[in-house]
Design brief:
174 residues, globular, mainly beta, 1 helix
Length: 174
């Protein structure tokens, strides 16, 4: 395979960084981070040596309900006044089969850094009408909110400990 060391940056207009959590054991509540940046770098065209970096502004959390958004920004959850960002930096990227990969990296959230492992699907590559290459990835996984000292006063019966991460990224070369 030819080496083609390239960095691709998230096309924010066509990317989403979302999550959901089970509320009171009966309903999944979803939200997203509206302000983020992400990049993927690989020197192989099969993505076998890819690395990923992501940052998001926790103050940009959006659930569609202003009162809930403000509650999530409070010290009871993200404490966005004192800790404004989350970040992920990959430490390992492994091909599993077909278009599927597993990425492991360090997630820093609410002042805590922990390793997390996420599932990645390469959705494909295309070139737009202007000649700009694009690639798409779906990334999913589960973290525990209490591992990051988030909402530790809420029992799992009120708010599940597991938070489902679900991101869809379209990256543009360069």
């Amino acid at each position: 395979m030819a080496s083609f060391a390239q960095t691709w940056n998230a096309d924010k207009a066509h990317s989403q960084l979302t999550w959901n959590i089970l509320h009171m054991g009966i309903n999944n509540l979803a939200g997203s981070f509206q302000k983020f940046s992400a990049s993927i770098t690989s020197s192989q065209d099969d993505w076998s040596d890819a690395s990923v970096q992501l940052t998001a502004d926790v103050r940009s959390i959006n659930t569609g309900i202003d009162a809930r958004d403000n509650h999530l920004k409070s010290a009871a959850f993200f404490d966005a006044a004192n800790d404004t960002s989350l970040s992920f930096k990959s430490t390992s990227w492994k091909h599993t089969d077909g278009k599927n990969y597993v990425v492991t990296g360090d997630l820093t959230l609410h002042g805590v850094t922990k390793p997390v492992t996420l599932n990645v699907t390469f959705n494909g590559k295309m070139t737009d009408q202007k000649g700009t290459p694009h690639v798409g990835f779906h990334i999913a996984g589960v973290i525990k909110r209490t591992d990051f000292n988030i909402a530790t006063n809420f029992p799992a019966s009120a708010l599940s400990d597991e938070v489902n991460l679900d991101a869809n990224f379209e990256f543009v070369k360069g």
